[in-house]
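Sequence only, no structure available. Ideas?
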Amino acid sequence: QVQLVESGGGLVQPGDSLRLSCAASGRTFTNYRMGWFRRAPGKERVFLAALSWDTGNTYYAGSVKDRFTISRAGAKKTLFLQMNSLKMENTAIYYCEAGWNSGVYSATATGAYNDWGQGTQVTVSP
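Reply:
I predicted one. Tokens follow.
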């Protein structure tokens, strides 16, 4: 059973930075992809970034590619999302998600992930 626990959210001003963390446990993550999504109030879940646990390959949504960076501390099974130049429209609950790579879905597809944490709130406000 995969457990994912996000942390690092908070209230920041436009232009600020935040680093989210996700502590993963419950299994080894061979052939897994892990990603970050967000859900704003009243909106659908949106893919932000993903990382292949075996290869370290990364994938980004075009809207965040130049501002967000996904990384990991493999030995500690921790996933990070460094977010720079935050905007008010980035206000959302951010979720860490994990999925075994079956080869059916691309890393950017919501269907590629079937485990997620409780989320961490990020609020960007003047």
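The first strand starts at residue 3 and ends at 7.
Hope that gets you unstuck.
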